[in-house]
Specification:
With 228 residues, this protein is mainly alpha-helical. Helices cover 57% and strands 11% of the residues. The protein has a three-stranded antiparallel sheet with strand order 3-5-4. The longest helix has 46 residues, at 80-125. The chain is elongated.
């Protein structure tokens, strides 16, 4: 039993709507997920700028960095006086580190529930028969009553989302993330997880620069410390 089973009617309605407007199959599927990544990254960026005091976090981050540098120097030089100074401030900086980490996680606490529900719904919407039909199926057997998809790895459980203009499924190490395209073995299919991951990396970097924050919620060098 899942966390959001009581929302099944809403989930099913969203899934059917996405399928009906045609955004679950290429080329619209890739563009749609890119837009989704942009919207979610913008929401996260706005929450960071609204809920976090960037000046305070930047100041505390600089203090912790100086303490770590001093601690490293004390260990390298075996300077007893320096080490005593480091140990005297150790408890204070451990508490500072803990408080800063909790503050940085505040936006995540707010978005965690809605985002889990949203991704569960969205992922299911991309698992319809027409998405799986784009994968090239093997002809040598079945697994749990279903045709085997050529290749190995977790991604073969996902329906096709983006048709890549090259043979990615033959690449060493990362080839298992893709499946061969059914209509052309020289092309590959990327699933939901891989494509959203790639979109999120690109979009979040741009959003972080726009809002003057970095991944940890701190100020990005070269950006103003306050937008207020």
């Amino acid at each position: 039993m899942g966390w959001f089973d009581f929302l099944d009617p809403l989930t099913n309605a969203i899934e059917q709507w996405l399928v009906s407007i045609g955004v679950t199959v290429p080329p619209f599927s890739g563009i749609f997920l890119l837009l989704v990544s942009l919207i979610l990254s913008s929401i996260t960026g706005l929450l960071n700028r609204t809920l976090l005091d960037m000046d305070e976090l930047a100041k505390k981050s600089e203090e912790m960095k100086k303490h770590q540098d001093l601690k490293k120097k004390a260990m390298e030089t075996a300077d007893k006086k320096l080490w005593i100074k480091v140990k005297r401030n150790e408890d204070r900086f451990l508490q500072l580190q803990k408080d800063t980490m909790i503050k940085r996680m505040l936006p995540s606490f707010i978005t965690m529930g809605p985002f889990i529900f949203f991704f569960t719904t969205l992922r299911t919407a991309f698992q319809h028969a027409e998405n799986f039909a784009m994968n090239k199926y093997c002809e040598d057997g079945l697994k749990n009553g279903e045709p085997l998809i050529c290749g190995t790895g977790d991604n073969v459980r996902e329906g096709g989302l983006v048709i890549l203009p090259f043979k990615a499924h033959s690449l060493p190490l990362i080839g298992d993330w893709f499946s061969p395209y059914a209509l052309d073995e020289n092309l590959s299919i990327a699933g939901f997880s891989f494509w959203y991951f790639m979109c999120a990396i690109v979009v979040s970097t741009l959003i972080q620069r726009l809002f003057g924050i970095n991944i940890t919620g701190m100020q990005t060098p070269g950006q103003p410390r306050s937008m207020r």
